[in-house]
Amino acid sequence: MESGGKSSKDKVVAVVGGGLVGALNACYFARRGFQVEVFESRDDIREAKIVRGRSINLALSHRGRQALSRVGMEEKIVSKGIPMHSRMIHSLNGKQSPIPYGKKGQVTVCVMCRNAGLAERYPNAKMNFDHKLWLWSPTHVLLLWLEGRPDGSAQSLQADLIVGCDGAFSTIRKQFLRRSRFNFSQTYIPHGYLELTMPPVAGEFAMKPNYLHIWPRNTFMMIALPNLDKTFTCTLFMPFDEFEKITTGDDVMEFFQEYFPDAIPLIGVEALKTDYFRLPAQAMVSIKCSPYHINDKCVLMGDSAHAVVPFYGQGMNAGFEDCIVFDEIMDQCNEDFSAVLPEYTRVRVPDDHTIADLAMYNYVEMRAHVNSKWFLFRKKVDDI
Ligand code: FAD
Q1: Which atom of ligand 1 is nearest to the CA of 166?
Q2: In terms of CB atoms within 10 Å, which end of the chain has fewer, N or C?
Q3: By alpha-carbon position, which residue is closest to atom 1 of ligand 1?
């Protein structure tokens, strides 16, 4: 398509951040024929055994699957995931009670987040790992200054469009903050999270695999999602001041004995005592901003535009949906960025803000009511 005198194949789209949303976005732009350059500060995580401090398995739901399907990636990703038909509630006395998701046949798929190379099947898309953006300018010419290359040098690039997919602490968004009439808010919740691994038992999953396992304990909560290697990633959510009270291996055991006794033999005493202290608990932030664009030059998508707390399981899914919404507007506006970008802000901001609010609402609900009458009510609603 033609717009602004240049055809899409002559235009350079710089996607900053090659995480979940950046990698998918690169496919959407490459499919249209743009010259796509993805800049990712980390190594290629497909090669990494451990991704420090980040959850590597996530629940992919309907809105995320739709976005993958549009670029022919749904089957590839879903076939490497594990379907979760139900939630499995673990009571304090060890009793397990399944609660299905939604209607019969409806499933959420647990997927690994190592999709950084999705775009590489397009010859006009290039992944640049170890490239960290540290400065850019939306005025005059667009320059991306990059560091982190093996020789330590910087590099610049002139792009027709910059797509900020660089996560909750976005460097791209910093320039937005300097501009008039840019609304921004961020809220840290009192809870943090910490990840533990539940190993396989005799080569098999230690618990039933096709479930999202939940241990609701009012102000605490632990969840476990299955991985393809037959491990579970357990995530403990808890207020920071409670994390700080646990300082020794014996404290960990006492705490698990009181709240999650059935998980102790499954994770293992020694693993619990050491893994608990491997990384500090991570903070969770909810970020809202508006507008999502600067002129016809730059647009924010994914967590850089709307980081949400993870209790609704929709952060990645909403980011994937950003890609599909932007793509539809590209069709409607004939790829004219001066029309596409404001329209994208107009359409997308209210929906993303609603998802952020729902996630915050679920933060309260999941902890306090997941083991109460509310859950039975939710089950009835889901079944309708
Ligand atoms: P990110 O995944 O943060 O990726 C940003 C990328 O940009 C990173 O690779 C980073 O290295 C790179 N980057 C950053 N700065 C620069 C720079 N200056 N230059 C170059 N590159 C840079 N969502 C779900 O839908 N389902 C779930 O089940 C779910 N569970 C979650 C559980 C937890 C504990 C948490 C914390 C989040 C969860 N989420 C879930 C949310 C999901 O992880 C995020 O919404 C999603 O990762 C956002 O993707 P993104 O690509 O926008 O940002």
Answers
A1: 7
A2: C
A3: 167
